Amino acid sequence: MSKVKVAINGYGTIGKRVADAVTMQDDMEIIGIAKTRPNYEAFVAHDKGYNVYTLADRVDDMKKAGIPAAGSIDDMIAEADVVVDCTPGGIGEKNKALYEKAGVKAMWQGGEKHELAGCSFNAEANYEEALGRDFVRVVSCNTTGLCRVIYPLDQEYGVKKVRVTLMRRSADPNDVKNGPINAIVPNPIKLPSHHGPDVKSVIPHINITSTAVKLPTTLMHLHTLNIEMEKDCSTEDVKALLAKQPRVRMIGQGIGSTAEIMELGKDMGRPRGDMWENCIWEESVTMYEGELYFFQAIHQESDVIPENVDAIRALTEIETDGTKSIAKTNKAMGL
Amino acid sequence: MSKVKVAINGYGTIGKRVADAVTMQDDMEIIGIAKTRPNYEAFVAHDKGYNVYTLADRVDDMKKAGIPAAGSIDDMIAEADVVVDCTPGGIGEKNKALYEKAGVKAMWQGGEKHELAGCSFNAEANYEEALGRDFVRVVSCNTTGLCRVIYPLDQEYGVKKVRVTLMRRSADPNDVKNGPINAIVPNPIKLPSHHGPDVKSVIPHINITSTAVKLPTTLMHLHTLNIEMEKDCSTEDVKALLAKQPRVRMIGQGIGSTAEIMELGKDMGRPRGDMWENCIWEESVTMYEGELYFFQAIHQESDVIPENVDAIRALTEIETDGTKSIAKTNKAMGL
Amino acid sequence: MSKVKVAINGYGTIGKRVADAVTMQDDMEIIGIAKTRPNYEAFVAHDKGYNVYTLADRVDDMKKAGIPAAGSIDDMIAEADVVVDCTPGGIGEKNKALYEKAGVKAMWQGGEKHELAGCSFNAEANYEEALGRDFVRVVSCNTTGLCRVIYPLDQEYGVKKVRVTLMRRSADPNDVKNGPINAIVPNPIKLPSHHGPDVKSVIPHINITSTAVKLPTTLMHLHTLNIEMEKDCSTEDVKALLAKQPRVRMIGQGIGSTAEIMELGKDMGRPRGDMWENCIWEESVTMYEGELYFFQAIHQESDVIPENVDAIRALTEIETDGTKSIAKTNKAMGL
Amino acid sequence: MSKVKVAINGYGTIGKRVADAVTMQDDMEIIGIAKTRPNYEAFVAHDKGYNVYTLADRVDDMKKAGIPAAGSIDDMIAEADVVVDCTPGGIGEKNKALYEKAGVKAMWQGGEKHELAGCSFNAEANYEEALGRDFVRVVSCNTTGLCRVIYPLDQEYGVKKVRVTLMRRSADPNDVKNGPINAIVPNPIKLPSHHGPDVKSVIPHINITSTAVKLPTTLMHLHTLNIEMEKDCSTEDVKALLAKQPRVRMIGQGIGSTAEIMELGKDMGRPRGDMWENCIWEESVTMYEGELYFFQAIHQESDVIPENVDAIRALTEIETDGTKSIAKTNKAMGL
Ligand SMILES: NC(=O)c1ccc[n+]([C@@H]2O[C@H](COP(=O)([O-])OP(=O)(O)OC[C@H]3O[C@@H](n4cnc5c(N)ncnc54)[C@H](O)[C@@H]3O)[C@@H](O)[C@H]2O)c1
Ligand SMILES: NC(=O)c1ccc[n+]([C@@H]2O[C@H](COP(=O)([O-])OP(=O)(O)OC[C@H]3O[C@@H](n4cnc5c(N)ncnc54)[C@H](O)[C@@H]3O)[C@@H](O)[C@H]2O)c1
Ligand SMILES: NC(=O)c1ccc[n+]([C@@H]2O[C@H](COP(=O)([O-])OP(=O)(O)OC[C@H]3O[C@@H](n4cnc5c(N)ncnc54)[C@H](O)[C@@H]3O)[C@@H](O)[C@H]2O)c1
Ligand SMILES: NC(=O)c1ccc[n+]([C@@H]2O[C@H](COP(=O)([O-])OP(=O)(O)OC[C@H]3O[C@@H](n4cnc5c(N)ncnc54)[C@H](O)[C@@H]3O)[C@@H](O)[C@H]2O)c1
After folding, report:
1. Residue B1 pLDDT
2. Is C141 an annotated catalytic residue?
3. How large is the ipTM?
4. One fold for both B4-139+304-333 and B141-298?
5. Are A264 and A255 in contact (CB under 8 A)?
6. CA atoms of B315 and C279, how far apart (whole Å)
7. D: neighbours with 3+ CB pairs under 8 Å?
8. Residue D256 touches chain A, beta carbons under 8 Å
9. pLDDT at residue D1 above 80?
10. Which class does domain D141-298 fall in?
11. Is C330:C246 a contact under the CB 8 Å cutoff?
12. Omega of the bond prior to B152 within 30 degrees of 0, cis?
């Protein structure tokens, strides 16, 4: 069987990781990536053997800079079975017409609205919903992290109410433009925030409120969760349930911060030191006065990457069973 | 009537502010401050006219450095009616014997345990409890900030349950030793944390759970609160109640971060730019599905300062009415 | 004699400080300040009693927000003897036509080019040059800091060559937009940088090269200087010379960082905790193999403030002797 | 020929990298690593197949924690041909007696004094000096970075004088204890600093002065260099010379900060995203008024790693030609 042809439109933090993760699979391949400027990321993409496409009017610039651009973004789309749109939030929306015109399946990331794709995706929670669709949105890093724990808890015990505080990194590690340097920024100030409720785009019946802040750190988001459940369960029950999720890592062994989790990712030899799993501090998981509490850290740059791979399988129906796709993706990535 | 003679043992972040706040009152005065090293803070204290005392074996060192130390800490204590102990957490405990021996009243800060003083103090919540006592503990910056909002809400509507996430600055602005530089540190990892429950040392019947993290910022703590109340009330009711508290400032006017609150403190001409009040974002205050949510920022260096002044009045009974003391302190400080 | 009427166009970091410093003088007064948005800074300005002006089309917005705007910027300019333009770099240039049309004297800050005013000003170095002029530019925080030490060294010993590394804070303390959060940014990359040579706009014959970086800190800039001089001199000679400069503070007493200098400013009771002087670590000043080395910290928000006051006197010729103006300004500000 | 048996004493930032780099070589192997606590780093070491040794009295603790410690540090040393001591600065000194008693060759890192080993090592500059010795010190990350550029410039043009400002990261990325969070710390304050002169422990005749600061960043050090040379040369000459050094990477392609260099390391697929080379901004390299200027970034965690591999070869004389060792190490590591 021939491999699914995947194009990456927007080769930044997310795009380059999706490209590499797709390359690790045996049932799909990257036929090109699109980059707007000939910076170091474009050179590395070229060195890795990816065909580098660009905006129609910049093909010459790319060539002059030393990257023999394979052509325009339209050319790239024409070759693809699926386009993974990883352009900055809001830009992806404008690309929809392009994909429709070319009759190509497309996926967006969490920076776009649910309505753009009509289906918001998390591999564990609603793989089936995306089967054979033309368009899908892989939800944001935070929503992905929330779905991965809320969904199994809801399946097992019934989730009555979720209250979450999202402490967000303000800039990715390679971004030197955005601050704050030394402040806490409640964002949004109006409460509750829209972040938590985005979970409903995947699991509509969940009752969830959230508050969110932006922090002077680049490494990971941190969630503090408070969950009321329908059925009785113990701390040990929850620990056991969370520990067996395919994209959850229970954290202990003296790891006391997001910095040490990132160190662990590097020590384990992960590409780019990525930590694709939700990292839950085992010691933090507690049922207290009938409510569940825990801390989880989310590596914003990478937790959505395996979900993108699964979404490609769902759209193209090369695998119709979500559990099998998750297992296949995890195995290929070494997760 | 002669003024109450106050000595400050430990002239750091808290001690120097208590000294200046006491000096602003007309019913008490600073008779001396104790500093262990002749650094710039000692020189400024001396320049301001405070008698600088030190450890018995360092009097000569102080003199040599150019600060004519008025004597040993024992000498200072002998002169005082009340000692405000502002030494680092844990040291204060060791000083208790000193105060008992000298037969002087003493106050500690939040770094010490409740048991040391037997009475934990917040001016709004339990002034009367401290009247005439020998020892009292002014609760920590975080607990003070929590008491100031929980107490009036409880009085008015009955507080059923409080869930709070405490995002703590990891170092004071002048501290260059402590990190993290770029990480989020859940602390403690074991949930729920002890921070919230410290409110019970002041208002025992409150049901409160907390989670806490340490952040790479020096300016302020941020609390995100979720409160369930006994009686019905609206967003507007709560805003009105909070706005009229004597040590709460409702924040708006485009202020979007702890950094801008600190700028406001400077712009208002506050000494050291201090923000003694809880700073609550008015826009954040919301009753949602029967639960109250809001964000408040706490200036860790200064919110306990007016409470220290009130505690001196309570211990010495120069004012037996807490409301009057609060009003007097606020007026003298320009709060 | 009536006071010089001063208007502040652009009431941000610099503008609000110039306003307060002018108010401290007995020979000048603020007749209005211009603010574009009704944020907290505008409210504080109004509370302090300043007439708040705004862009012509925003007068109503200001009024609606609760600040009875005294009128448009044009109205303000019409009342003034001197306009101190403290708008963001590049905006000031566009205002020149306004000032010319109104026939009012005007001053710009370091964000504008030398050519705009034709005269770049530092009180110690070239007060006389600005006497009676229509326009002048008060040089940037970094250039001001450099002129204050290079000028006297040049007068006394002849400066042969200056090499300086400028480590710049990337954002002011109230700015939460700009990063980096965790990186060093050489800026500009092309060497040598334009920063040092800006000293020549004040003292043309100085031979100076500089390298500059932007850092994840908000408090102060730090300069490391290497100076070759014409005449022989000792470490002690230089220390003595620097120590007696009117706007230099020699730093010691255990102060080991920019954070502790800012703490000193607060402890001293300075408005906003400002540190108007160059802060030179006394221990760092060293003649080594015939070259001078030292570290100085520059409080970017405030070091140009006394220079702005002096520049007003120079333009209006209410004082023709620079040394007298400096002394008068310093005394009024408590420097 | 059997492989050289290498033991790593102290498996932290440097130790774990040396272990992995040795494993990449075909002429040496890791026979064990020593770790004091059973934290995540110990588990990863164990998972990677390294024999984990520990302090004699902690062997049982390790076993209990789930890591079957292969024995005590003494046991490990007894098996080794060379011990690479990567314990924290100052501890290494105490281990010398151990190595002498066991009659094993040993290497220390830059945290120890030159005198401890009697020979300070940089592969490019003085490989031959270390041949067959019992002890050697691989110089610090900063000194290594300086030697790599000063040595070839000196060989080619003669270095008359070097002035360098070292802007140091204050904590490694996984270290959440150390600050500052928001300040610049001149360190040492006394000038010139000892950092630059440490180059003389490798190349004694170099005339070099340095100034150093500590910054709130974790990623890399940044050096700004000013070099006077004996012979005439052009900007292009220097660029060409630097570009051909085996452990120098010329940086361009829109990379504007240490953060983007670290991103490049990750993008290139380097283990842990390490950047073993000096990273020199090509655009910064400039001959100006007869003096050379440039910026280089140094990845403190990894630049000394290839030098450690070479030092093992020098001590054991399995390769007597430094150039060949450098080439072999680079090739094996993919540098
Ligand atoms: N970074 C994260 O933490 C994160 C996490 C999860 C989801 N997301 C979402 O992923 C999407 C991408 O975010 P990112 O962080 O990777 O952004 P990014 O800025 O790192 O990368 C975006 C890339 O798109 C390119 N680009 C811009 N305009 C383009 C156009 N018109 N055509 C093609 N390419 C264009 C840019 O040059 C850049 O390389 C967003 O929707 C974002 O919300 C980001
Ligand atoms: N900094 C805050 O944010 C904050 C807020 C609220 C409460 N507190 C509490 O206030 C207390 C003081 O904290 P701080 O932040 O002011 O500490 P600090 O370190 O700033 O100051 C403590 C001072 O005590 C001096 N000292 C140390 N040992 C001493 C001794 N044996 N005798 C006399 N003086 C001694 C130190 O030299 C220093 O000047 C602690 O209990 C702390 O938990 C601190
Ligand atoms: N902040 C510093 O560290 C510093 C130091 C020395 C010199 N400077 C220079 O001082 C000048 C002002 O800088 P700043 O840091 O105070 O900026 P800022 O952004 O803090 O303040 C600028 C103010 O001007 C207002 N403004 C914008 N457009 C305007 C317009 N068209 N008319 C009137 N007001 C307008 C803004 O609302 C803001 O209040 C710049 O030239 C800057 O380079 C700044
Ligand atoms: N981190 C850097 O940036 C860097 C760069 C170049 C050189 N160095 C030098 O390398 C050396 C190691 O530094 P590091 O940063 O890797 O330190 P580190 O703290 O990361 O690691 C040191 C390790 O040694 C272990 N250890 C402590 N005492 C021990 C003992 N008695 N026996 C065995 N192991 C013990 C610790 O548990 C830790 O795992 C120091 O000399 C340092 O100056 C560090």
Report:
1. 63
2. yes
3. 0.98
4. no
5. yes
6. 43
7. A, B, C
8. yes
9. no
10. alpha beta
11. yes
12. no
Mean pLDDT of D96-102: 97
Token reading at A182 = 């030394």
DSSP A324: H
Q: How far apart are CA C185 and CA C195, in angstroms?
A: 15
Q: Which residue from D minimizes the CA distance to A266? A: D272
Q: Other CB atoms closer than 10 Å to residue C190's CB: what's the count? A: 14
Best residue for ligand 2 mutational test, from B8, B41, B59, B87 (most atoms within 8 Å of Cβ):
B87
Chain A contact for C181, CB < 8 A?
yes
At C1, is the pLDDT very low, low, confident or very high (cuts 50, 70, 90)? Answer: low
Nearest ligand, measured from the Cα of B98: 2
pLDDT of residue B194: 87
Distances (CA, A) of B176 to C278, D171, D206, D222: 21, 12, 34, 20
Residue C303 structure tokens: 């070091």
Pick from C40, C182, C259: which is nearest to B174 by CB?
A: C259
Q: Which ligand is nearest to the CA of D53?
A: 4
Strand-pairing partners, residue B287, are B292
Residue C42's SS3 state is helix
Pairing of strands A291-298, B4-9: unpaired
Establish if A182 touches chain C: CB-CB under 8 angstroms: yes
Does D253 contact A39 at a Cβ distance shorter than 8 Å?
yes
CA distance D243 to chain A (A): 17
- The torsion angles phi and psi of B185, rounded to 5 degrees, stand at -120, 100
Distance from C-alpha of C181 to C-alpha of B182, rounded to nearest angstrom: 8
Is 3.40.50.720 the CATH number for C4-139+304-333? yes
| Atom 32 of ligand 1: nearest residue by CA position | A10
Output the CA D14–ligand 4 centroid distance in Å.
6
Instruction: Map residue D76 onto helix, strand or coil.
Output: helix
Annotated binding site of C: 13-14, 111, 140-142, 169, 195-196, 300
- Other C-beta atoms within 10 Å of D29: how many? 14
The fraction of chain D above a pLDDT of 90, given in percent, is: 97
C:259-298 residues touching chain D, CB 8 A cutoff: 259-260, 281, 283-286, 288-289, 291, 293-295, 297
Tokens coding B201: 């040392």
Ligand 3 atom at minimal distance to the Cα of residue C175: 20
Question: Hey, where are the domains in chain C?
Answer: 4-139+304-333, 141-298
* Of B67, B73, B86, best ligand 2 pocket probe by most atoms within 8 Å of the beta carbon: B86
What is the phi-psi region of residue D90: left when phi exceeds 0, alpha when psi lies from -120 to 50, beta otherwise? left
C-alpha closest to that of C76 among C54, C47, C107, C100: C54
Report CA Rg, chain A. Answer: 20
Cα D15 to Cα D123: distance, rounded to the nearest angstrom: 18
Residue A161's nearest CA partner among A225, A231, A208 is A208
